[in-house]
Backbone:
């Protein structure tokens, strides 16, 4: 199997999963498709020679931010009105889509792990973590600072909302 | 021979997976027996010599149970959740170097891969809690989500000191960088934080609030039975093994023999033996912790994480960076 094909497979998985995100009636299922989509995108990054970006994509997006999404959906039980429809679907209809997509991804990953084909990436060379760091704190220093300001503002806002009022009760 | 050679990685993978599953099953017995001995009682000692086959009996019992999926549950996610829990942990072992030659893959981002898999593992617990449509399970799933996200932050930070010293994310490079001294000598604070975060990530006592039986019956796996429950069980014990293995690799020299034994006969032992001895030590340590510590309240758990562990890991990272830049601590190529 050519490495290009692996890339296009992963891209296809990301594409289909992204479409399913917006067409799923069930909020949690949509989020699960989003996770699959992000994993596929991370895989594309990896194949393009950016393993560091791929790792961070999985850790930060799929592993942290989307867990928060799932958390919020669970907490407020955002199920919509279509809940009963879900149970009338056949066994095949619920399983088919996600199963095909994840199996494809799993096969690709197994292929990469076994053949160690990571060195024959598509075009560019492998970007190491060190190069990412040098780029971030060199030409893109301003962007990093702006992002950190944004995060600080978010942190302060979060602190403000969570703070107890003078009466000692939570807002 | 030429026909078989491409299959070697597959064979190696299958053997490692099989061994891991067997070890996890064996650990269930080890845990119960050791706790029994430490608490001055016998523990399971009937099945086989000393009770070694207890896990086989348990497995037969579990497989004989009714494979029950509640009518009110979300079927797809309900069935998916235990698989996510077990598979993500098994995937993490792909980057673990078991010895000089054994190991599935030596990814150059091995450490990040491990972090990614542990952060994906939380979906197993969260989705199990949500799809059960059961209040106990939902509360357990929510606790798991909050706990894992919090403890993941400084689990990552606590390992960065080691990365600074080794100059690589590859686990094999990290082990090789400890040829002249284990990282525990300078990274003891990072090791402490990593151990605490590791226990929280594998939600074992004292951090097993997602499944606290006194208040939540069985937490996120309340509705699970049979094989699906066994998968959660497998995931938990594999998680303990994984955290022990990572502690050994990051801080205790992985498969390298200890420095003071360098010239003795012990240094001739194969790397895998040293690796297993060290990992077993930490597994027993986890079991001992479980028997001796009480369970905190949930808000105490989160406050402890953010107010104590996070600053500690930041201090550790800062200190390591300063010592590294001033040349006090040596390390790999940077």
Residues:
């Amino acid at each position: 199997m050519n490495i290009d094909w692996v890339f296009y497979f992963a891209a296809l998985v990301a594409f289909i999963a992204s479409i399913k995100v917006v067409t799923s009636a069930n909020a949690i299922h949509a989020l699960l498709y989003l996770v699959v989509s992000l994993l596929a995108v991370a895989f594309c990054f990896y194949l393009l020679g950016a393993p560091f970006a791929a790792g961070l994509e999985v850790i930060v997006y799929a592993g942290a931010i989307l867990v928060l999404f799932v958390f919020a959906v669970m907490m407020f039980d955002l199920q919509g009105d279509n809940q009963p429809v879900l149970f009338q679907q056949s066994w095949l209809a619920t399983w088919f889509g996600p199963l095909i997509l994840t199996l494809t991804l799993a096969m690709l990953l197994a292929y990469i792990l076994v053949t160690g084909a990571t060195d024959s990436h598509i075009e560019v060379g492998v970007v190491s973590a060190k190069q990412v760091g040098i780029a971030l704190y060199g030409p893109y220093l301003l962007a990093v600072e702006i992002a950190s300001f944004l995060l600080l503002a978010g942190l302060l806002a979060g602190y403000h909302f969570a703070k107890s009022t003078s009466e000692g009760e939570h807002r | 021979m030429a026909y078989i050679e491409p299959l070697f990685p597959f064979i190696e993978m299958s053997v490692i997976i099989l061994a891991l599953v067997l070890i996890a099953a064996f650990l269930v017995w080890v845990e119960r027996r050791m706790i029994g001995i430490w608490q001055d009682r016998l523990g399971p000692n009937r099945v086989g010599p000393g009770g070694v086959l207890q896990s086989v009996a348990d497995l037969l019992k579990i497989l004989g149970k009714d494979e029950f999926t509640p009518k009110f549950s979300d079927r797809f996610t309900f069935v998916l959740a235990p698989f996510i829990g077990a598979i993500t942990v098994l995937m993490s072992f792909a980057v673990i170097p078991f010895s000089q030659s054994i190991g599935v893959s030596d990814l150059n981002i091995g450490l990040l891969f491990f972090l990614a898999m542990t952060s994906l593992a939380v979906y197993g617990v969260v989705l199990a809690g949500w799809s059960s449509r059961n209040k106990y399970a939902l509360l357990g799933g929510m606790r798991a989500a909050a706990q894992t996200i919090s403890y993941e932050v400084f689990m990552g930070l606590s390992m960065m000191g080691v990365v600074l010293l080794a100059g690589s994310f590859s686990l094999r490079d990290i082990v090789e960088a400890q040829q002249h001294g284990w990282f525990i000598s300078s990274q003891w604070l990072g090791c402490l934080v990593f151990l605490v975060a590791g226990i929280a990530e594998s939600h074992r006592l004292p951090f097993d609030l997602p499944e606290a039986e006194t208040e939540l019956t069985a937490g996120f796996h309340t509705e699970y039975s049979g094989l699906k429950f066994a998968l959660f069980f497998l995931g938990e014990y594999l998680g303990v093994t994984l955290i022990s293995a990572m502690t050994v690799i990051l801080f205790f020299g992985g498969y390298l023999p200890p420095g003071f034994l360098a010239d003795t006969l012990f240094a001739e032992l194969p790397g895998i033996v040293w690796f297993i001895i060290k990992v077993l030590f930490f597994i027993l340590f986890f079991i001992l912790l479980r028997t001796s510590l009480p369970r905190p309240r949930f808000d105490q758990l989160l406050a402890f994480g953010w107010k104590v562990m996070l600053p500690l890991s930041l201090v550790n990272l800062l200190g390591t960076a300063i010592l590294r830049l001033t040349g006090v601590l040596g390390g790999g190529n940077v």
About this structure: Residues 65-325 of chain B form one domain. Chain B has eleven helices and no strands.
